[in-house]
Amino acid sequence: MTERVVNLRPAVVIVLATLVVLGGCASAPSAPPVPITDVRQIEGKWQGLITLGFAGPQERYYLTVNPDGGLVAQWGMNWQWGKVMLSGGNATFEMDSLTNGTITYYEGPSGRSLTLNANFDAWSAIVTPVK
After folding, report:
1. CATH number for region 33-129
2. Smallest Cα–Cα separation from 93: which of 27, 46, 25?
3. Distance CA 95, CA 70 (A)
4. Which residue of 50, 83, 97, 114 has the lowest C-beta tally within 10 Å?
5. Which sequence spans correspond to the domains of the chain?
6. What does the pLDDT look like over 3-31, one tens digit per residue?
7. Measured distance CA(35)–CA(52) in Å, rounded
């Protein structure tokens, strides 16, 4: 009887590549970013998750954007206050502890969301409006 050896390596590579592509699509926003030209577009209470570090632990994140552009953020035992600044359809934030970064706004069939990316503190948050 002849023993036959089957090389499964190409099939495994294809399956892993497919999972990586699908995983990336699942975590990406479903709509293109919307320019933020008025703070009223993002005003209100938001909640979601903050990711600490690069692919680090996640915690519940609460964000309030006030009509005057003031921000209040809370996660765990941490509280931060700051402000939103708008320029040419782009939004940035600055918090009291010298944290700053970008805010990206999405609006689509699955709803509204904000992504906050800190410039130097290695964290990001994705939030949706509180219902």
Report:
1. 2.40.128.10
2. 46
3. 10
4. 97
5. 33-129
6. 565 555 554 434 434 433 334 434 455 68
7. 26
